[in-house]
Each structure stands twice: as C-alpha cells, then as structure tokens.
C-alpha cells in the first residue's frame, strides 16, 4: 500500500510497477527484499528523484556548434579497453591546432606513470552528427606524436613492441623523446601502442551550472569512444563517448583536485595522482545513472540497479529515450535475475568479476513507434501477439524474451565491476563496457576490460540540495534549425531499422 502511494506521489514520467507478488513468487526461490516495503520504497523514491533530476539539479546546456578552445583535463584515472590506465590533458587553440597529452600508468589509480604521448595536429569542427543526436562531427589531422618513457621498464617494454612491429633498430631509452609519427615522411610507429585519435571525430560540449549561481559553472568536453577491440581502434568511428574532460578555465569551484594536478602535467613531468586504496566492491543497494547515457547505436538511457540484500538476486530498470538529455521516453525494461560475485580480476587491476543472469523481463513501450514495432512482430516472439499498448507493461518471460528487441531468456553475462568514491564521498559503481561490435559478453573471455559511466548509490539526502534543475538542450534546438527536423525524421527511421540488432544490452 505504502509502495503504491509513493509511486503515485512522484511524478515519474511513466509508471514503474514493482509487482511485489510476482517478484516474491518467482522461480528465484528467495525472500525478496521487496517484502521490506518501507525501506525499498524510500530508496526507490530517492532513486527516482535522482533520475528525474539528472546532473544533480544543475542545468545543462549543450552548445552547437561546440567551442572547444581551451584546456580540458581528466577528472579521474581513466580506464580504457586493454586495460590502459591514463589521464588526458588536451589543449585546443583558436587556429584549430591542438596539443594533446596522454599520460599512461602502471596502476589503476594513476600513481605510477610509465610513458606519455604528446600529440599535435589540427581539428576542424563540422556538422551536427545525425547518428549520435546532440553530438558534433569533426575532422582531424595529426602532425606529430612524441613518446617519452618515464621508467626503464616501460622503455624496455615499448622497445620490444616497436622493434617487432615497426622495425625500430635502437632501443628506446627512458627520459628521451621519440617521434612516432612523421607527417612529412608518412612514417607511423604508433600502431604497437594501440594509439589512435579517432576520439576527435565526435565532440560534445556541456555547460553545467546551478540556477542563479554563475560561479558554479563547469564545462565538460565529451570525445568519441574507443573500440573495445584494440586492433580496431584506428578505424573505429565513435558511436558514444568517453568519460568527460573538464574545462580548466571554468573549474571555478576547485572541487576537482585531480583536474588541477593533471592540468600541470607535461610530457617530461607527468602528473601522479594521490595514492588510494581500492574500494571493496559491495554492490548491495540501489544505484542510478548520473547522466543521460549514450550507448553505441543511438540509444540514450538511464539505468537503475537494485542488488538485493540476499547477495544473489538483482533487478535492473532501463529507461530508454530518443533524445540526448533523456526527456522523450521510448520504452523501458525491467530485468530480474540472479548474480554471483567472483574473484578480483587478474587482467584488470582494481576490477572484480561477476556473472549475471536475467531470468525474467518486462517491457513497457512508451512511444507509438516502439508500440507498433512490438505489434508488428507476430507469433509467440514477444509477449502476446498484437497486444502491445502504449504505456502498458508486459511480461515477456513466457515467450522467452522478445525477438523484436533481441532479448533471449534466460541470458547470462560475464561482468567486471569496480567501486570508487567521488569527491563528495558518495559511492560509485562501475560495470563493464559493452563490446563495441554489439555482441554480448556471454562467455568469460568476452568480459570487459574497461567500464561504462558510473552509477551512484542512491540513499536519502543524496540528491544535491533543493534545486529543481531542468536539463535543457535549448541551444541544441536553436542551433538545429530545419536541418534538425529533417535529421530527426531520418533518425527515427534509422532507429526503427536498427533496433532489433542492437537492443539487448543489459547491464
Ligand atoms: C571560445 O572559447 C574561448 C575560451 O573560452 C573564447 O576565448 C572564445 O572567444 C570562444 N569563441 C567563440 C567563437 O565563442
Ligand atoms: C596556433 O596557435 C598557437 C597558440 O596561440 C601557436 O602556438 C601556434 O603556433 C599556432 N599555429 C599556427 C599553425 O598558426
Ligand atoms: C565481438 O567482440 C567480441 C569481444 O571482443 C568477440 O569475442 C567476438 O568475436 C566479436 N564478434 C564479432 C561478430 O566480431
């Protein structure tokens, strides 16, 4: 009773039904903590509030075309597929040239630098991307890539790679810089390092500020993602983003200490981040997205995970949208299943292995396009044939999933998790990056070696004050003009065609 009341009080854009009866009576054979309605209800209310007010109550403006002039730096130790641990400090000039510094490390807290790259070139911002709404395409050209090793171990390691794959005769020495790329002769020795600047093909600049407080403004630069298969990096066309870089100029509140440290790094003097202990992975509780997330293949979504106290059952709510600020819902999925926590990863320092299984799935179409797509699929492939109605949830477990959405049940995935605390002491949960080729990590060797954007634990009082912020893409709309209307239509058609191929990306 209390549960229902809570849900009706929150003006969530669509109803999420927590069916206590069916969860408790499912084949999971466990006492669902949903039975403890009071605390779950309170947490859910909190999580819904956080999802509704993404970006912590700050207003977000997206500038089209983006102005990338200035210095942009990592706000944490980043993990790239491989894994690679790095921080970035990129500087873009008015005259379209750029100096990008990439600092690589031995450890997952970026305390021990191994080598650094200085990349110089030009970048030209082009038109709005119609594949990734809200993104802008750009072209780049490299002029120079310099390598500088900080330790003799790193120098030995890279020497071996460069000798094997690039015919480099002399050994690389530490504390000396080497040209890996020569624009004039076309010599390219960046391959053995898995180096690529394809990230510059997709850009997005977000300005975050609190209402009436211009001093709190921060600017973020999102650059294109990297292919999870390192050998495909050089030819990959980004279809989502890496973690945002922060503008140094606009970091007025100095809350980002790591940004300050990274911004002072140079090729010869790489930044070392303060050492910290790994935060033990304890997933129990509720976790929600901190921003409108982009998945490869034009999907925008927010996620809400519940890991039950029994330590082996979980639920996930996936709210999908057609727009980059997550305001226009298309459909939602509610997955239920079990999981087991494994060993610390031997491959990815700081990561912990998990195995997830989805046994039950409910789907709610939330726009007309998705509703008709679901109805077009005939037979027993997705719920009751032809019965889908806008805003009405159906359990697709009896049809072993939903062919239209590419969902097959039961479904098992091999996962990688890590945990961290943010600058405000809140716990953050990261789970594995999905393979870029759209496959599912359904075998242990496909387990991720990098992570998706973090989820934050939702608990009462976590939602950053009383600001009822409004996420806006007004600049995007103004800039879009009529070409925007046209690409919207194309976007929609494209979405319909490609959906069955890309949807099942649980987690
Ligand atoms: C872009 O940003 C830079 C630095 O913030 C500023 O100096 C410049 O005037 C801006 N350019 C445009 C065209 O707005
Ligand atoms: C572009 O501007 C930067 C900084 O003002 C300067 O160092 C560089 O030489 C300029 N490059 C060109 C090609 O004009
Ligand atoms: C997709 O990527 C996974 C993980 O990298 C790999 O194991 C699989 O073979 C790839 N599938 C295709 C069809 O390329």
List keywords for this structure.
alpha+beta, 507 residues, 34% strand, single chain, disordered C terminus, globular, binds 2-acetamido-2-deoxy-beta-D-glucopyranose, disordered N terminus, 2 domains, 8-stranded antiparallel beta barrel, 8-stranded antiparallel barrel
Q: What class, by secondary structure content?
A: alpha+beta
Give the total of domains: 2
Strand percentage lies at 25-35%
Total strand segments: 24
Low-pLDDT segments: 1-40, 461-506
Number of helices: 7
> What average pLDDT do the residues reach?
80
How would you describe the shape?
globular
Amino- and carboxy-terminal Cα gap: 30 Å
Helix content: 10-25%
Q: What is the rounded Rg?
A: 23 Å
Give the biggest sheet: 8 strands, antiparallel, barrel
Bound molecules: 2-acetamido-2-deoxy-beta-D-glucopyranose
Widest sheet, order of strands: 2-4-5-6-7-10-11-12
Pfam families: APCDDC (PF14921)
Domain APCDD1: 46-275, 276-461
Organism: Coilia grayii (Gray's grenadier anchovy)
Region (Disordered): 430-472
Summarize the structure.
The protein is of the alpha+beta class. It is 18% helix and 34% strand. The chain is built from seven helices and 24 strands.
């Amino acid at each position: 009773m209390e549960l229902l009341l809570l849900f009706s009080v929150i003006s969530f854009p669509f109803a999420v039904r927590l069916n206590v009866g069916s969860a408790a009576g499912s084949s999971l054979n466990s006492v669902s903590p949903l039975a403890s309605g009071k605390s779950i209800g309170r947490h859910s209310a909190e999580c819904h509030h956080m999802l509704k007010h993404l970006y912590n109550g700050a207003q977000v403006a997206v500038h089209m075309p983006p102005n990338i002039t200035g210095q942009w730096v990592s706000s944490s130790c980043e993990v790239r597929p491989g894994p690679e641990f790095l921080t970035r400090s990129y500087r873009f000039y008015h005259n379209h040239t750029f100096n990008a510094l990439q600092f690589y490390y031995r450890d997952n807290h970026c305390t021990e630098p191994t080598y650094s790259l200085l990349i110089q070139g030009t970048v030209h911002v082009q038109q709005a991307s119609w594949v990734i709404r809200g993104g802008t395409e750009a072209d780049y050209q490299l002029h120079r890539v310099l390598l500088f090793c900080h330790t003799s171990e790193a120098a030995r390691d890279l020497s071996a790679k460069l000798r094997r794959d690039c015919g480099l005769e002399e050994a690389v020495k530490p504390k000396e810089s080497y040209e890996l790329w020569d624009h004039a002769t076309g010599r390219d020795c960046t391959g053995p390092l898995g180096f690529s600047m394809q990230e510059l093909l997709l850009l997005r600049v977000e300005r975050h500020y609190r209402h009436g407080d211009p001093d709190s403004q921060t600017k973020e630069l999102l650059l294109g993602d990297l292919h999870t298969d390192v050998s495909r990096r050089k030819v990959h066309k980004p279809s989502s983003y890496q973690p945002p870089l922060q503008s140094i100029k606009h970091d007025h509140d100095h809350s980002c200490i790591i940004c300050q440290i990274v911004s002072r790094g140079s090729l010869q003097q790489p930044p070392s981040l303060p050492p910290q202990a790994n935060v033990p992975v304890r997933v129990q509780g509720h976790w929600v997205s901190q921003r409108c997330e982009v998945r490869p293949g034009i999907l925008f979504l927010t996620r809400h995970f519940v890991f039950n106290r029994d330590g082996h059952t979980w639920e996930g709510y996936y709210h999908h949208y057609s727009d980059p600020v997550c305001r226009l819902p298309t459909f939602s999925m509610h997955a239920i299943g079990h999981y087991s926590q494994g060993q610390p990863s031997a491959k990815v320092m700081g990561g912990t292995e998990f195995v997830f299984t989805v046994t039950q799935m409910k789907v709610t179409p939330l726009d007309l396009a998705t509703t008709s797509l679901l109805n077009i699929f005939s037979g027993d492939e997705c719920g009751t044939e032809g019965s889908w109605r806008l805003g009405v949830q159906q359990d697709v477990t009896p049809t072993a999933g939903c062919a239209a959405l590419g969902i097959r049940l039961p479904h098992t995935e091999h996962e990688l998790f890590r945990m961290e605390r943010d600058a405000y002491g809140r716990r953050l949960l990261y789970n594995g990056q999905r393979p870029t080729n759209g496959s599912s990590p359904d075998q242990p060797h496909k387990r991720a070696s990098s992570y998706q954007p973090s989820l934050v634990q939702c608990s009462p009082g976590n939602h950053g004050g009383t600001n009822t912020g409004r996420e806006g893409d007004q600049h995007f709309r103004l800039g879009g003009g009529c070409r925007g209307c046209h690409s919207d239509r194309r976007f929609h058609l494209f979405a319909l065609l490609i959906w069955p191929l890309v949807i099942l990306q649980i987690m």
